[in-house]
Amino acid sequence: MPTAFADVTASDSTLRRFLHGLPGVDAVGLEARAASLGTRSIKTTAKAYAIDLAISMIDLTTLEGADTPGKVRALGAKAVNPDPTDRDTPRTAAVCVYPDMVATAKEAVGTSGVKVASVATAFPAGRAAIDVKLGDVREAVAAGADEIDMVIDRGAFLSGDYMTVFEQIRAVKEACGTARLKVIFETGELSTYDNIKRASWIGMIAGADFIKTSTGKVGVNATPANTLLMLEAVRDFRAQTGVQIGVKPAGGIRSTKDAVKFLVLVNETAGPDWLDNHWFRFGASSLLNDLLMQRQKLATGRYSGPDYVTVD
Predict the structure, then answer these.
(1) Contact by Cβ (8 Å): 309, 289
(2) Catalytic one among 78, 197, 248, 261?
(3) I need a surface site. Which of 11, 140, 279, 280 has the fewest CB within 10 A?
(4) Could you count the other beta carbons within 10 Å of the beta carbon of residue 21?
């Protein structure tokens, strides 16, 4: 936690005063700016760059009760070599799995440089005691996870118990050791942009390496507007502290056109320093297939058949 915020987190009342003292979000203005940026068009050379950049930013994800070691190994192979017909295709940033699949994923990606991320803290609901949540994190880290994606206690947040949310993030960050921490807010459950802004600041002050929109398990996930708001938060946080925090929109981003819109948001809001997979990720799986098909279209002038990409 930056020392500048030591007084802010001294007590529940000081934290509340800080969060409710943040400037209110102009919802109409936010959505209008997000929509305006989404109309930007890019030409062929820039589009080819954007497609490769987006591929390199994907956390290729499988988070289902029916996950098997075979499925995770196949996903790891796809992350390392997304297009077997074109070895110049970038690798994805990471593979994201449940803690019990981390060792399998780690073996699958080998020394490729693809990270292994793991959801933890009783994902996706976060309804568990703190010792259970920390055990979840330690299990994943011990198995070799490079990154941890935690969920905040939305019940605590929505009831105004901001200090509990802050302290849990701090405890998880400590349990991560050298693993990077992504803090998931589940923006679709936070109801208002003001709440998303407050959650962003709690996460950043508590030590998040990334702030993340969603689990992908609810009706409303990443949107241009909520991602724009979080990008403004990390931009402002770095301006105040010198500390750079990443952003990860997750859920509902399925097309190349959508991915390019989000990259425009990043460039125009936080700036080019965030146009790197160390600072920006997409939580998506189906997105990769569309990016690969659009990539081949640019290279060959024709669309691929439906069997060009694997079905995850």
Answers:
(1) yes
(2) 248
(3) 11
(4) 8
Radius of gyration of the chain (CA): 19
The one catalytic residue in 106, 197, 212, 261 is: 212
Instruction: Give every residue of the chain whose pLDDT is below 70, as ranges.
Output: 1-3, 304-312
* Helices (H), ranges, the chain: 12-20, 27-37, 44-56, 69-80, 102-109, 130-142, 154-158, 162-176, 187-190, 193-206, 224-241, 256-269, 286-300
State the Cα–Cα distance between residues 156 and 172, nearest whole angstrom. Answer: 16
The domains located in the chain, with CATH, are: 3-300 (3.20.20.70)
Distance CA 2, CA 204 (A): 9
36 closest CA partner among 269, 246, 214: 269
Q: How many CB atoms lie within 10 A of CB 279?
A: 19
0.90 exceeded by the pTM? yes
| Active site annotation includes 212 | yes
Phi, psi (rounded to 5 degrees) for 68 = -125, 160
The rounded distance, in Å, linking the Cα atoms of 53 and 301 is 20
pLDDT for the residue 31: 96
Q: Is 149 a catalytic residue?
A: yes
Q: Any idea what the Cα angle at residue 247 is, between residues 14 and 83, rounded to 5°?
A: 160
Identify the pLDDT of residue 259. 96
- In the set 149, 153, 258, 290, the catalytic residue is 149
